[in-house]
Specification:
Elements: H1 11-24, H2 37-55, H3 59-68, H4 91-102, E1 110-111, E2 117-118, H5 134-151, E3 156-158, E4 173-180, E5 183-192, H6 200-203, H7 209-221, E6 230-237, H8 244-261, H9 266-282, H10 284-288, H11 294-307
Parallel strand pairs: 5-6
Antiparallel strand pairs: 1-2, 3-4, 4-5
Helix pairs in contact: 2-3, 4-9, 5-9, 8-9
């Protein structure tokens, strides 16, 4: 009806678009996506994030901030604190988790049992070789993945006895039916300290670099078995990031759970459970080094964390 109507250009609209492009050094969204506020916000958020990263003087703080703002790094904050489902963190666990992310002091400086001075940010406990709970954390993460496979109707077994590396160690989980190109899938999960000194140079370039390096080491260890099976490493970081192949696996497993249950939120729930598991054990590492009495403190603390976890 109005095909022949001539509408004059809005000079103010043109001026504002030009100012926006100039100020944020980014082209304006096209007409198809211009109605979405998130499209306009993205370049602004990117600029502010880059500005904050550049404002930090230490590599530790730059790597910490880059990891914290990455996707899926804080899924534990999205979980409903339901105790019976194992989704509730106590006050001390939340304090430590937030302190590590914000870079604030969470303990007094002191000497670790390994001889290293522990800074007030408490991050040394996450990478110390004497840190407690590593085996318990690995077992809980492995149990969560295996149980999710079974709930999705995918038969799986933990630590198969007939499948081992050249050094005799076994993978965490084996899927008993073909997963990809007629091959059965076997998994190995690991958790690496995001802010360990050896990882900081890589984290200055890209987030999740710690997880990717840990995944590469796993692939090298299972190089022989991967010729007959489909190997998939699930490498997590203490700040919650996951390697790329781990994301693909979790997304596919979530889709399998959704098809079976009809609940389309299963992928999000799986991410939240993994994140909660990591954060629950993160808090025991810095806390342990503040407990007097080495062996007894270690046993009681790991037992307390394990008993407070419900699948």
């Amino acid at each position: 009806m109005l095909g022949g109507l001539q509408i004059p250009d809005d000079e103010q609209y043109v001026t504002l678009r030009y100012r926006w492009c100039t100020e944020y050094s980014s082209p304006c969204p096209d007409d198809i996506s211009a109605h979405k506020q998130s499209v306009w916000d993205k370049p602004i958020i990117h600029r502010e994030t880059s500005s904050l990263i550049d404002s930090f003087s230490q590599d530790y703080d730059k790597a910490r901030f880059r990891s914290v703002v990455a996707l899926h790094s804080s899924n534990w904050l999205l979980a409903l604190p339901i105790t019976t489902c194992g989704l509730r963190l106590d006050n001390e666990a939340v304090r430590v988790a937030m302190g590590l992310r914000l870079g604030v002091n969470i303990c007094e400086p002191h000497e670790c049992r390994c001889g290293t001075m522990v800074k007030a940010n408490g991050s040394h406990g996450l990478s110390c070789s004497l840190g407690p709970g590593r085996a318990a954390r690995h077992a809980k993460l492995n149990e969560l993945i295996c149980m999710s496979l079974v709930r999705a109707g995918i038969p799986a077994t933990k630590e198969p006895t007939d499948l081992s590396r050249t050094d005799g160690k076994r993978p965490d989980d084996l899927k008993l039916i073909p997963w990809w190109m007629g091959r059965a899938l076997f998994l190995d999960a690991t958790v690496a300290d995001t802010l360990a000194a050896s990882y900081l140079p890589s984290l200055l370039v890209a987030a999740a670099a710690t997880a990717e390096q840990a995944a590469d080491r796993k692939c090298a260890k299972y190089d022989v078995l991967s010729k007959t099976y489909h190997f998939l490493p699930v490498a997590c970081e203490t700040l919650g990031l996951i390697n790329n192949s781990g994301h693909l696996f979790i997304a596919e497993l979530g889709r399998c759970l959704s098809r079976l249950t009809g609940d389309m939120r299963k992928t999000s729930h799986l991410y939240q459970r993994i994140s909660i598991t990591i954060q629950r054990f993160d808090y025991c590492f810095p806390r342990f080094f503040c407990i007097a009495g080495s062996c007894r403190g270690l046993g009681l603390l790991c037992l307390n964390v394990s008993q407070n976890y419900f699948v």
